[in-house]
Amino acid sequence: MSQPEHDPIEELIAFASRVDACMIPPEVLGFQTKRLLDNLGCMAAGYKESGVNAALKLARRWSGCGEAHVLGSQEKLAAPQAAFVNAVRARALDFCDVLSPGWHPGSSDIPVALAAAELSAASGLETLAALAVAQDFGQRINLAAQANGFFYRGFDSNILGLFSGVVIAARLLKLNLQQFRDAVGLAFDYGIGTFQHYQDKTLAVRFGQGLVARHALEAAMLAQEGISGPRRVLCGENGFFNLYAPGKPDLNILTQRLGVDFLGEEATCFKLYPHCSILLAMTDTLLNTPVPEKYRLDPRTRLRLKASPTMRMVCGSSYSPSLTPEIDAQFSARYIIANALLRGRATPNEFSAVAAQDPLVIAFAQRIEIEEVAAFDRFDRFELTLWAADGDELTLASAYGRGWPENAANMQEIRDKFMICCQLSPCTTFRENANVVLQHIEQFAEAPSVMPLLHVLR
Question: Which residue in 140, 150, 297, 327 has a CA-CA distance of 20 to 30 Å to 337?
Answer without folding.
Answer: 150
